[in-house]
Specification:
Elements: E1 36-39, E2 42-45, E3 70-73, E4 80-82, H1 86-94, H2 103-119, H3 130-152, H4 158-168, E5 175-177, H5 181-190, E6 194-199, H6 205-212, E7 220-223, H7 224-227, H8 234-244, E8 251-255, H9 258-267, E9 271-275, H10 279-282, E10 294-295, H11 301-306
Parallel strand pairs: 3-6, 3-8, 6-7, 8-9, 9-10
Antiparallel strand pairs: 1-2, 4-5
């Protein structure tokens, strides 16, 4: 569910949180930037070179017209979505623990999840050890799911129920790529763009990306629970930029939240692009946020990015 939804929101998608731009653990093997490696649980510079702020080798002339060199994406709600809804999945597992499924009880669970998820604080943890981070992620989600059933009626053997439903989202089975995601990511890579993810997801994201077959298309993955920063805080965007050694105006970020993705990116100096897949999203208004470039499908992204100069 990307607090970028892990149990991610019904079509609700997740946010998950900033810290010093010192290198931190970011992704398992296969998801690391070409400029980084994971050693003993922490991100390290390649031993053969120091970070001097220099740019990577220039791409062949004509490959990219746009000033943008790197495109970052939100995860859930932007690249992929929950199959069905979080509420339906919660109820399907809850039935074996005594929960009575009716149209009313399903609606109550959906509403309770929406409220519990959005009322939860960002998952910022004052720990660095990978095993402790995973433990804190589980506790964070335990509180949310417990809150849901506190509102609608507590389950028998809730702890056992939680273990099942938490693991249900740890892999591709409960997630589905949007139809155009794979093709557009490959097209952008072929055009010479570097790609990254900036998400308020937890560490289960890595299994999801691998299971959906898109992990190798990303040069970097930056998630809040490892970055010690969550969107919309500028720090998580700056950390992601550092991995690519680009300036903010050389990067764009695409996501489905005006606040977390568009305004967060802008505050860090990136171009923020809103993806509004649902008609209601395109009319989303926040008087404190300037209108954003908006697309309704990732198919519109290549043309839009080429116009950013």
């Amino acid at each position: 569910m990307e607090r970028d939804s892990g149990t991610h929101p019904d079509g609700d998608h997740g946010r998950q949180p900033a810290g010093h731009l010192r290198a931190v653990p970011v992704a398992p093997v296969g998801l690391l930037s070409r400029r980084h490696r994971t050693i003993a649980g922490s991100e390290q510079r390649h031993p053969c070179g120091s970070h001097s702020g220099s740019r990577p080798p220039a791409r062949p002339a004509g490959v990219i017209v746009s000033k943008v060199k790197v495109i970052f994406f939100d995860a859930a709600g932007t690249l992929f979505h929950v199959k069905g809804s979080v509420g339906e999945i919660y109820v399907s597992y809850a039935e074996k623990y005594g929960f009575k499924r009716t149209s009313e009880s399903l609606a109550a669970v959906k509403e309770a999840f929406k409220r519990a998820f959005h009322e939860a604080p960002p998952p910022l943890f004052a720990v660095s050890d990978p095993s402790e981070i995973k433990r804190c992620e589980r506790l964070w989600w335990f509180d949310i799911v417990h809150n849901v059933f506190y509102r609608v009626g507590m389950l028998e053997r809730f702890d056992d129920y939680f273990e099942e439903v938490f693991h249900a989202f740890d892999g591709p089975e409960r997630w589905r790529l949007y139809p155009e995601t794979m093709g557009i990511l490959k097209e952008l890579k072929e055009r010479g763009f570097e790609l990254g993810i900036i998400s308020n997801f937890d560490t289960r994201l890595f299994n999801v990306l691998r299971g959906l077959g898109i992990a190798d298309l990303f040069d970097t993955v930056t998630i809040s629970s490892l970055a010690h920063a969550a969107k919309p805080a500028p720090a998580i965007f700056r950390l992601a930029l550092e991995k690519h050694a680009v300036d903010p105006d050389e990067a764009a970020h695409v996501g489905d939240s005006l606040r977390d993705d568009v305004e967060g990116a802008r505050q860090a100096g990136l171009s923020g692009i809103l993806i509004a897949r649902e008609p209601t999203k395109s009319t989303e208004v926040n008087p404190q946020i300037a209108p954003a470039p908006t697309i309704h499908s990732l198919e519109e992204l290549p043309q839009l990015v080429e116009r950013i100069t």
